[in-house]
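At this stage, I wrote out one protein's amino acid sequence and its backbone structure tokens, and that material follows here:
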Amino acid sequence: MGLWRTSSRKSQKSSETSTPEDQSPDVHTPTSRQDPNLDRSLSRNDPAASARQANSEAWLAGHLHHLTPEQEASLQRFKQLCEEKGYYTPAKEGEGEGKATHDDATLLRFLRARKFDVNAAFQQFKDTEEWRKDNKIEALYENIDIESYDEARRMYPQWTGRRDRRGIPVYVFAIRHLDSKTMAAYTSKVSESTTAETHKSSTVPARLLRLFALYENLLRFVMPLCSQLPRANPETPIVSSTNIVDVSGVGLRQFWNLKGHMQDASVLATAHYPETLDRIFLIGAPSFFPTVWGWIKRWFDPVTTSKIFILSADEVKPTLTSFMPPSSIPKKYGGELDWDWGDLPNLDEPARELVGALQTPPADGKGKPGFLKGPVLFKGDKIEILGSEDGKPRRQEIPVEKKSSSTSNADIAAAAAAADEAAAPTTNPLPSQDEDEKAALEKEITDGAVSPPAATTTA
């Protein structure tokens, strides 16, 4: 198996070539909770229609406690197959829930990624479990140097500390900061960094080890924390993230040079962290973006591209507001949140009540509070502080005192009305500029100097 790609593509291929009669129910097919007309609108990436879906129970189809009888049966068959093959151990009688090696919400991510095709989901799950074992993923996250971790955090989407109206964490990725100088400095630091003792013999490039750790933070800290915070459907764990991707001020050459950097994350998510992406709101698209979008679409299948919404300047505030309260939207994008690219999470009050011990005082008593750097785990009743500092393991446990929050779900209840006022179906009437740069790069592609990337699968 490759270092970080997966052989589970074979299972996808078999799924795509099978006949409809051979496939299990598709969670993207309208159910009794979904409007067929709405789903047709979603296929055209209509942000207003997508907001209405997100603010109803339609988005929960295929998730825990929102399964059809056929999907529930597929989950049971999947668990049985994983257990028979030695990749899953169920909870033992008398020990209660949570003692299984994998929870149902995690297993359902693999099933949704393969449209509830049990055999295809098992192949991807098996590949992932072997990949995690081969690369010692848990030990990597627990032992990574905290400064190396924070350097990587600044190169990829960052959690703002806030959530959308459904409770899904909101990440921001401001691409213009990743210029050639920044990328060169990061590459140099990665090559000079000290690798954790557990991974000194690893053949995986250091930059990918760091990227693995960032995904583990999403799965092992952000999602479990968000699952315990007030929201409309507390019966269903949070298993995905919403992303604001800001491409304003990015030149065509810079975008092309970042292709590999961004594709690393998309392929990794596709292979080993399936169904962790809810939506991407792409804002600030420059004039040449229609050309770039033609390349990007080759990296993903239609299900993934249906999650991406390209917003014009006029659409940014109404669209984001239809998905998340103003308090979760950074001021730069029309909201109220005091958060800028590079900042550590700025928690809302319910999150602060649970993990406020991870916050650090503002410098000189002014400005925004900070947040503890490096890997942490959220385990419901406690927080585990991990990572290494100056070559020494950092280990500390902090108990979580559960408090009743006064935060209401009024914003969630009002979301449907806000969605009705959201932007019209996405268009991208961008002026024609940067034609010389665009023509030069297209000529390089035509002449064979550079080649568009190969397609990948669903994130």
Observations:
- The first strand starts at residue 158 and ends at 163.
